[in-house]
Amino acid sequence: SGYNKVLEENRHLYNQVQDLKGSIRVYCRVRPFLPGQASRSSTVDYIGDGNLTILNPLKQGKDARRSFNFNKVFGPSTTQAEVFADTQPLIRSVLDGYNVCIFAYGQTGSGKTYTMNGPKEITEQSRGVNYRALSDLFCISEQRRDTFSYEVSVQMIEIYNEQVRDLLAADEIRNNSQQKGLNVPEANLVLVTSTSEVVELMNIGHRNRAVGATALNDRSSRSHSCLTVHVQGRDMTSGAVLRGCLHLVDLAGSERVDKSEATGERLKEAQHINKSLSALGDVIASLAQKNAHVPYRNSKLTQLLQDSLGGQAKTLMFVHISPDVEAFGETTSTLKFAERVASVELGAARVNK
Ligand code: ADP
Fold first, then answer.
1. Per residue in 121-153, is it b (16+ CB within 10 Å) or e — as a string?
2. Of all helices (H) and strands (E), which one includes residue 103?
3. What's the 322 CA to ligand 1 centre distance in angstroms?
4. Maximum C-alpha span of the chain
5. Residue 209 Cα, ligand 1 centroid: separation in angstroms?
6. Which residues pair with 207 in a beta bridge?
7. Which protein residues are within 6 Å of ligand 1, measured from CB?
8. Domain boundaries in the chain?
9. Is residue 289 over pLDDT 90?
10. What superkingdom does the record give (predicted)?
11. Beta partners for 318?
12. Interatomic CA distance for residues 178 and 193, integer angstroms
């Protein structure tokens, strides 16, 4: 069939895809010091391809160092294009009918939005994973157009205090939107045909996300945002239909909130964030351990993504850290979270066997 022909032509890619099937990968990205911070000392002592060592500023000698292993570690000078090159095989597998989840995890200011979206002023070089993913999907579907006909549609939601909000619900969307979706039946699913259409929708989504935020309450760091891309491909020879789905999730900031200082709204937000991030960690850890029971129901996020976490689906967690000594405590807890998510598969599987 046409599908087999495409696979044959993309054999190397197909093999990569098979390797990734059902797997959980963790990439760690260290952001550079920001302009004006260059003279600060760094907690990052060593960066290798798959590991990094951090330095505790309060300890001396051997005790001061701690190493972590991940599938990849990107240092401060890694470009957006280099990060995307290691993400691309996963994204392309969506066109072959896989479900893929990509998460950005880390404390506020560690570079989550930079990885997924880009900096404030986005240039061609600084474009993040979201834009590159969509443009790649359109490009490949164009290349396959003699054998496959693809339909691409997107959803954008925000989860704040365990409440789901549709960021594309605005009347501004004149596209032929349809009222259906995977697990958020009420969220608008908008049919798109080009990257620029998606960028327009993302801008609408970002504007809608800002509603409800005040100067003192930058909601975007305390809510999860999810751009979901649904792909449906029809094999023009056999008529067979493939469905794949890509979730691009910018998670709420993982920083712990000082309980003695947080009250009211702030405390409630912090509790919801803690709960949902640890629920996500639990789900991923339990999938990696191949537990019979996976606790999807413990948070809105894991409930929504249930079909795309586990089974044949592929998960990539980008964990972000700041090199600043000031952030050492948060950096350590971020890396421990990531280690738990990553090493379970490598570590616990070894122990269990
Ligand atoms: P978060 O989404 O985790 O709160 P941001 O993505 O907003 O963090 O990053 C905080 C600041 O650091 C922003 O000004 C951003 O442009 C900058 N930044 C983050 N990562 C990088 C990077 N890899 N290269 C250059 N600047 C970065």
1. eeeeebbbbbbbbbbbbbebbeebeebbebebb
2. strand 99-106
3. 9
4. 67
5. 19
6. none
7. 31-32, 34, 106, 108-114, 119, 221, 320
8. 22-352
9. no
10. Eukaryota
11. 27, 104
12. 15
Mutate to test the pocket of ligand 1, among 27, 30, 31 (most ligand atoms within 8 A of CB): 31
User: Looking at the chain, how many residues does it have?
Assistant: 353
Could you tell me the distance, in angstroms and rounded to a whole number, from the CA of residue 250 to the centre of ligand 1?
13
- pLDDT tens readout for residues 298-308: 999 999 999 89
CA 97 to chain centre: 19
> 257 pLDDT band (50/70/90 cuts)?
confident
What value does the mean pLDDT take over residues 55-75? 92
Rounded-to-integer distance, Cα 245 and Cα 153, Å: 10
93-110 confidence digits (pLDDT tens): 999 999 999 999 999 999
pLDDT score recorded for residue 4: 64
Ligand 1 atom nearest to 78, measured from its CA? 23
Pocket test for ligand 1, best of 33, 110, 114, 319 (most atoms within 8 A of CB): 114
Can you tell me the mean pLDDT for 60-85? 94
Domain 22-352 sits in CATH at 3.40.850.10
Q: Are 40 and 324 in contact (CB under 8 A)?
A: yes
Task: Respond yes or no on whether ipTM tops 0.90.
Answer: yes
For residue 319, give the nearest of 249, 219, 231 by alpha carbon. Answer: 249
